[in-house]
């Protein structure tokens, strides 16, 4: 997730405005930033790595001339977050400048074709193909809009683009597919940006750009067309009356709720990992004598879920380990044939890095999965995957958990394929469902949010919650419980449902809410037995079950219905969503701030 802004003024210098706008986009990334302008048929550009204010102190981003300026704030996905990979990117002639948010999936093949035609690439980014493609098209059309149109028709993946050229200093051309882009209509000029807050200071009148649309912004208007057939789009503007603080959360009262709702988008991005990196990591996993899945907190729950996926799909035994326990438990056993798959959203968690360090010293292969390409974890990993969720502001991990699961599921399916342990039909069926997850999550939020609010109201005063599941749903139960206790401060327990009788059931008494994660998978029959046991002790049963599962609904005091036909192995992805919402609303109804839970930090970098 990056942020882009473009401004074209009737008169004056637009750079200071773009700089202010980038400050508001910093929540979308802070690895590097840059800005480009056109003045007197000349392209000016400044960019560097680091945080926006540090860069500005160094090179004064407001000090470039011209009424036509684009800017970018980067959350690196392709290429290290250094100066050279910072946006804007340019073509060979340095007349075209491009800022981009998204992932160009076919950039490697496009780059190869363009290099064969003589284009010189200087960065490791996916974005750099865009200015070169436009340059190539400009040879044939000599018209920026047409060149951009033809170029974007060749792109696969997601993009929000703002493009300027010194040969046409009266316009910004924008295009969008699956990455947000909004157009601002102002008295002093026209604006485009990744979101409303970034340009709210300049206008409160907006037009949305939809997927597969292209727009030309001049200082006094905008024209929009469909990329496919150039059909003209007539769209009226709308006004917002948000203040800046509301606007940063895009109308949501808290970042946590915004991030829960962002999951369809973050999952789409997590599904766009580059094939060759997935293949590389899969090969390392396949070669290991033993695989340790090492992580803390929510990331550990993702690892636990993944251990079921690896086992059932690829028949591969893996050992999920809480990072702080790794050295004491397995430290002496780790060696050159071990693979450590370390999962850390921040890539900076002390316990995880310490475990990784220990394993490295013993010559183990380190693989990282993280949301932070510039983290310590990526530096110490032999190979790594970046989940591409963008910054997560809420301390409670939500969108980064489901994205981790998406990445891990992709690895499990690849391993299943190369190890030939399940049929191609089974792989295809699961893959199809995995690629539908963004839609399924959207549906889940729509289906469950109101019901969850009702439940949060009903149970707001309860002081003990139990979360139970079997099989892979144990991981869902543990994650639901962690969400609830970390932001509501209410004691909660989670364990595999069958463990109840070995002790925990003794704390159950009349009215204790017990949340059962009960997808329609092979554990369901046994889960029904566990529901009966709890019911017999007076527990209030809240079942998370498939839509139309009358048997479970009939046993439960309350139920939350989920979409049908979710394969058990992928069920943690949608099933955790109502649990995230439940924790959120319980915190809010108890007057707590879910974004800032007491005693917790987003990234735990101390022992
Ligand atoms: O950055 P990491 O994924 O390594 O962080 C691990 C845990 O600190 C983190 O998941 C923590 O448990 C969250 N607060 C959970 O919501």
A few lines on this structure:
With 607 residues, this protein is an alpha/beta fold.
What does this structure look like?
The model has no long low-confidence stretch (mean pLDDT 94). By secondary structure, the chain is α/β, with parallel strands linked by helices. α4 packs across α5 (144-153), α9 crosses α14 (399-419) and α11 (323-330) packs parallel to α12. The protein contains 20 helices and 25 strands. The protein folds into three domains: 3-248, Glutamine Phosphoribosylpyrophosphate, subunit 1, domain 1, CATH 3.60.20; 252-435, 3-Layer(aba) Sandwich (Rossmann fold), CATH 3.40.50.10490; 444-599, Rossmann fold. Bound molecules: 5-amino-5-deoxy-1-O-phosphono-D-mannitol (M6R).
How many DSSP H or I helices? Answer: 20
Give the helix level as a range of percent: 25-40%
Q: Would you report the number of β strands?
A: 25
CATH superfamily of the largest domain: Aminohydrolase, N-terminal nucleophile (Ntn) domain
The largest sheet has its strands arranged as 3-2-4-1-10-9-11-15
Shape estimate: globular
| Poorly predicted ranges | none
Give the biggest beta sheet. 8 strands, antiparallel
List the helices and strands and how they pair.
Blueprint (H helix, E strand, L loop, with lengths): L2 E7 L5 H10 L7 E8 L2 E8 L2 H8 L8 E7 L14 E2 L5 E6 L5 H10 L12 H13 L2 H10 L5 E7 L6 E6 L4 E4 L3 E5 L11 E4 L4 E6 L2 E6 L5 E2 L4 E2 L4 H5 L6 H7 L1 H8 L4 H13 L2 E6 L1 H18 L3 E5 H8 L7 E7 L5 H12 L3 E6 L5 H5 L2 E4 L12 H21 L4 H12 L1 H23 L5 E5 L3 H16 L3 E5 L16 E6 L5 H13 L3 E7 L3 H6 L2 E5 L9 H18 L18
Parallel strand pairs: 16-17, 16-18, 18-19, 19-20, 21-22, 21-23, 23-24, 24-25
Antiparallel strand pairs: 1-4, 1-10, 2-3, 2-4, 5-6, 6-7, 7-8, 8-12, 9-10, 9-11, 11-15, 12-13, 13-14
Helix pairs in contact: 3-4, 4-5, 8-14, 8-16, 9-14, 10-14, 10-17, 11-12, 14-15, 14-20, 16-20, 17-20
